[in-house]
Amino acid sequence: MDSQTKDMLEKGGIGVDSLLERCMGNEALMLRLLKKFPADASFAKLCEAMEKGDDAAAVEASHTLKGVAGNLSLGVLFPLLEKQVHSLRAGDRAAAQALMPDIESAHAAALRAVEGLA
């Protein structure tokens, strides 16, 4: 991977070295996994659940997206979702909702970076 691509991904909040290690050094696998990120529906489900006030669906969507973020080394998004899942499970919907702007921003940055791979 060239340094420009690596920089683009890292600016999007993706821990390239960590993800490459998780992929056992297989860059093609890493890129293939990243390119699947835009198709993941968890973020849309999270937004919809939060908008509707469906806390059970929000926990499920946030937890699923947290797993995706962890697996793809999305180092900015993952800790935000970790906090959100904890808040939702504790019944603190206001705290979970307060995290949405940062989650939306981190998700958008990762999405832009991955879409830049095309």
What does the secondary structure layout of this molecule look like, with pairings?
Blueprint: H1 3-11, H2 16-22, H3 27-36, H4 42-52, H5 55-71, H6 77-89, H7 93-98, H8 100-115
Helix pairs in contact: 1-8, 4-5, 5-6, 6-8
Describe this structure in words.
With 118 residues, the chain is an all-alpha fold. The protein has a single domain (3-115), classed as Four Helix Bundle (Hemerythrin (Met), subunit A) (Up-down Bundle), CATH 1.20.120. The chain is built from 8 helices and no strands. It has helices at 3-11, 16-22, 27-36, 42-52, 55-71, 77-89, 93-98, 100-115. Helix 1 (3-11) runs antiparallel to helix 8 (100-115) and helix 5 packs antiparallel against helix 6 (77-89). The two termini are 14 Å apart.
Structural class: mainly alpha
H/E element order:
HHHHHHHH
In CATH's first tier, which class applies?
Answer: Mainly Alpha
The major β-sheet equals: none
Tally of DSSP helical segments: 8
Count of DSSP strands: 0
Secondary-structure arrangement, i.e. CATH architecture:
Up-down Bundle
Number of domains: 1
